[in-house]
Amino acid sequence: MLSLLKSWNYKEDLAQLKKMFRLFFPRGKSEVTLFIVFFLIYGSLATFMALATNITDQPTVKTDAYFSFDNALISHHGFQNLEGHPLMALFTFPIIYVGIIFNLIFATVKAKALFLVLVCTYLVSSSIIYIYRYLKEIINLNGYITYLLISFYATTSTLIILSFTFESYTYSLFLLTFSLYYYSYRIKNQLATPFSINIILAISLGGITITNFVKGLIPILFIPNDLKLIIKRVSIISAIFISILIVLEIKENIFSNIQNRLDLFIIDSTLVYKYIIDFFWGAAILFPEIIKSGYYGGPIEVISTDFYTGWWQYLIVSLIFIFMIGGSILNYKNKLIYIPILFFMVDIFIHVIMKYGINEGIIYGGHWIFIIPVLIGWLYKSLKTAQQKALEILLSLLFIALCVNNITQMNTFIKLAQELFPAS
């Protein structure tokens, strides 16, 4: 650590930090145009959900009002549980306080609700821009396929829902897509990444969702540095994060409830494969049927999803998975592809192998859904011209099916939101 401090050029780090923060915003005409288009589309939906219903901020069912999200609780308290999201309040409280100020100015609680959902719209729209950059600058894609993959990504059920859901997953989606682009760009161009940026991105990811801390470390393994230096950086960042958790445990006893939380995710083993395929994998992309269900067996009804019922639903999500596997295999010699693959493997280990939260798998899409356009983009790049054309046609058909299904199911969602959580 002393050697790192001695070699630390803080002026250069500050300069790099400024450059990094500028990358958070759209650059150039195409990025600005894309951002505005998606912000307007998502923003229209988010505005309606905030003003025409109480589902984003209703006071009675603060958790699990739809798909097991805790956004209503977070919009009031800034976080749901410290053991899973130890530093989330640092990211949510400033936004919530601004929302409270808007309430005072406009004399309505809906001002805060509208502000919070538009923040979500901004974060989701920004994530689309980062994936757009990745496709263009890292994979070197251009033209129709780039916009097709971006549109496919933007129409997934995860992005539609997160565009108005003030949750940890929305913040994670924003930071994960940015980290993937930023590190991939640095690695591709053989640029060293300042240690301060390594710390900021890893601690931010882990602070919002503790399991994503590992994803903050993965890209560091591939940066152009001496192996000993990489090990030192990973060790120091890990020590800092663990120290933060220890301090929080001493002050807040954050891990006292962890066993109770784990017990909530014990599921019927006979349905585990349905949960994995239909909820964890499929529902994050393609909505199953949206239904009403009892709130923990009580009289209050909330919005949930059923399992898939049609062969065509399994066909769509299976083809997408095959395309991702194909992109991974055909580009196995390219070290850049291992960053998104390892990102996804973290989620597979937690939710598929360990089965944590697998019965609520739809909500975890924000941690990995961006892997789809990235790996399919790599697949496209590795194909011959005729094969690329065939893939474009097939993806176009899948995109049409995705649009029809998800728009139809969102129409159902909106009707249920108005019925169960009408605006007050």
What does this structure look like?
The chain has 424 residues and is mainly α. It is built from 18 helices and 2 strands. It has a two-stranded antiparallel ribbon. The chain is globular, with a radius of gyration of 21 Å. The N and C termini lie far apart (56 Å). The mean pLDDT is 90.
Describe the structure in brief.
By secondary structure, the chain is mainly alpha-helical. The chain has helices spanning about 1-5, 10-20, 30-50, 70-75, 90-105, 110-140, 145-155, 155-160, 170-190, 195-210, 215, 225-250, 260-265, 270-285, 310-330, 340-355, 370-380, 385-420; strands spanning about 290-295, 300-305.
Shape: globular
Order of strands across the biggest sheet?
A: 1-2
Mean pLDDT across the residues is 90
What series of H and E elements makes up the topology? HHHHHHHHHHHHHHEEHHHH
- Count all strands and give the number: 2
- Which percent band covers the strand fraction? under 5%
| Gyration radius from CA atoms, angstroms | 21 Å
Q: What's the story with the biggest beta sheet? A: 2 strands, antiparallel
Helix segment tally:
18
Name the structural class. mainly alpha
Helix content: 55-70%
Low-confidence stretches: none
* Straight-line distance between termini: 56 Å
List the helices and strands and how they pair.
Blueprint: H1 2-6, H2 10-22, H3 28-52, H4 71-77, H5 88-106, H6 110-138, H7 144-154, H8 157-162, H9 168-188, H10 195-208, H11 213-217, H12 227-252, H13 258-263, H14 272-283, E1 290-294, E2 301-305, H15 311-330, H16 338-353, H17 371-382, H18 385-420
Antiparallel strand pairs: 1-2
